[in-house]
Amino acid sequence: xxxFIDTANIEEIKEANELGVISGVTTNxxxxxxxxxxxxxxxxxxxxxxxxxISAEVxxxxxxxxxxEARKLxxxxxNIVIKIPMTAEGLKAVKILSxxxxxxxxxxxxxxxxxxxxxxxxxTYVSPFIGRLDDISSDGMKLIEDIAQIxxxxxxxxxxxxxxxxxxxxxxxxxxxxxxxxxxxxxVIMQMIKHPxxxxxxxxxxxxxxxxxxxx
Length: 216
Ligand code: E4P
Hints:
Blueprint (H helix, E strand, L loop, with lengths): L1 E5 L3 H10 L2 E5 L2 H7 L3 H11 L4 E4 L5 H12 L5 E6 L2 H12 L4 E6 L2 H10 L3 E4 L1 H6 L4 H14 L5 E4 L5 H10 L3 E4 L1 H8 L2 H17 L4
Parallel strand pairs: 1-2, 1-8, 2-3, 3-4, 4-5, 5-6, 6-7, 7-8
Helix pairs in contact: 1-3, 4-5, 6-8, 8-9
The chain binds erythose-4-phosphate (E4P).
The site of erythose-4-phosphate (E4P) has 11 residues, from helix 7.
């Protein structure tokens, strides 16, 4: 499973990119709004940092508007992927954009049927939102499992991005269930790095080394 970072914060993206573990970025209107900066500028800056798919979301609700915005965003950089909400208008936009060779990430997926429809419309990626399902006492992981099974059965090439990730167990389970990608907030990437036994091990090595008065 590959990792994308789920943020529009430039510092977080730079930091995660230096770790060598991320191969793409996802943003959404809320994440961009949090930065209080010009949308296009933020996307351009991200594209200069990460050499991989960068999702930028459209705001229009009709397919003509979505397609117009998508063409503008896709023109920014070759790596831009257009995030389209899972609606009937969204599917029409995905169909048009896929014919034009513009990659899409169908977002706000909460059922396997929605994922299947998005794939059939030509989506490059689908983004099932695990955390938001868990929030309403539904089973986000079951959704990943169902989509992975259906896509495998029908040899569907659309990639599954496990989204709305809240903690490292979400990442682990999504990987085991066959999600192609997890888009992970910076905080969760940092949580995944840490283990108390790693910290304790480093401390013990340092102490033993100092006691023996060794040098490199
Ligand atoms: C995915 O692409 C979305 O940006 C994101 O994962 C949404 O997560 P949230 O439910 O924590 O807002």
